[in-house]
Write a structure and sequence with these properties.
Number of domains: 1
Largest sheet: none
Number of helices: 12
Mean pLDDT: 80
Structural class: mainly alpha
Shape: globular
Radius of gyration: 22 Å
Number of strands: 0
Low-confidence stretches: none
Distance between the termini: 47 Å
């Protein structure tokens, strides 16, 4: 169990190589020419897009905290947003959350406020991801809806409607049915892992604590509905900053894609990388981007160059900035702690 994430990553890398190698073998000779013809004057657009991304992240955190009755400076929420990259580099999956939690606590934010922030931020951002993925199903030229025959399309619609009705049924009555279901499933999983690995996988009592807290968060958002338009605007800026970074990464190398083509491919890439259960591990998203966009008909050499450029500006460059921010915030945190002891 200790090394399972590395096994998943290696499997994904192997699949990506197996899919890309034959296609790249046909076009790799074009890489020097494509790189030479790249429109490098558009690179500042990548910086602008990433600025929007982190601004949306920090602004959304500030708005959500204000809903909870805490007024932090935008400067602080922006810096902590950048620190998430450093945390994810050190400890994939939860490293960004852990580092953000540490520095929010240093800013005297209570545990309950940080939990409210994490749940609300995730909820608002994933609503935006879901909206754009849904739109891409209708507007992306590569969407399967363009190719499905009417009976299959009707079946898909029926499955989606049934799924949401089941979700509604589970969420009724403060989520009591959802709690019962998750507790039962966790006990089954624990029984399997106990038999195989002599240990429990998850705490079967955790849903009883987490789901009521989820409903408490929704009530808090509902009580501050006047702030929700700003929160959705911030999450929109956050989302578009990321998508535009990927869009311009392709455009720089001469690949003019439909905007919703990028949205559709990126959404599928996120789902594929999530299957590894370590989506923030370096190389995982690049591998999934390469597999998905090559499968959607973009030449392999363009996908490799564009994916590498996207990760350079969305991950490695913010990582360098994040290290500087981390040093400064640790220095400020020590200063605050020293002043508190003197008092």
């Amino acid at each position: 169990m200790r090394y399972w994430r590395y096994v998943f990553v290696l499997i994904l890398m192997g699949i990506a190589f197996w899919i890309l190698a034959p296609k790249l073998g046909e076009t790799y000779n074009e890489i020097p020419e494509v790189f030479r013809k790249a429109n490098k004057t558009l690179i500042p657009l990548l910086l602008i897009a990433q600025t929007l991304y982190y601004f949306g992240d920090g602004w959304l955190s500030k708005i959500v905290l204000k809903m909870g009755g805490y007024n932090l400076r935008l400067r602080d929420t922006l810096r902590i947003a950048i620190l998430g990259v450093v945390g994810n580099q050190a400890f994939p999956v939860l490293g960004g959350v852990a580092l953000s939690y540490y520095f929010y606590r240093k800013l005297k934010l209570p545990h309950e406020a940080i939990v409210f922030l994490v749940i609300s931020w995730t909820f608002l951002v994933y609503i935006m991801y879901g909206i754009f993925f849904f739109l891409s199903l209708f507007f992306a030229p590569v969407s399967p809806l363009y190719f499905l025959p009417p009976p299959a399309l009707i079946t898909c619609i029926f499955v989606v409607i049934t799924f949401f009705l089941a979700i509604y049924y589970l969420l009724k009555d403060e989520g009591r049915k959802l709690i019962s279901l998750t507790v039962s499933l966790s006990r089954i999983l624990n029984g399997i892992t106990m038999f195989l690995f002599k240990r429990d996988l998850i705490d079967s009592e955790r849903p009883k604590r987490f789901i009521p807290r989820l409903y408490q968060t929704f009530r808090m958002l509902e009580n501050h509905y006047r702030e929700l338009p700003k929160a959705f605007l911030a999450s929109l800026i956050f989302y578009l900053g990321n998508i535009l970074t990927l869009y311009f990464s392709f455009f720089i190398f001469g690949q003019k894609c439909n905007f919703f083509h990028i949205v559709y491919g990126y959404s599928l890439s996120l789902l594929l990388s999530a299957l590894t259960l370590v989506p923030q591990t370096p190389g995982v998203l690049l591998a999934s981007l390469s597999v998905i966009f090559t499968s959607l008909g973009i030449p392999a050499h363009i996908v490799i160059l564009s994916g590498a450029l996207y990760r350079a500006f969305s991950y490695w460059l913010p990582l360098a900035v994040g290290v500087i921010v981390l040093i400064n915030m640790r220095r400020e945190a020590r200063k605050i702690g020293k002043e508190a002891m003197d008092e």
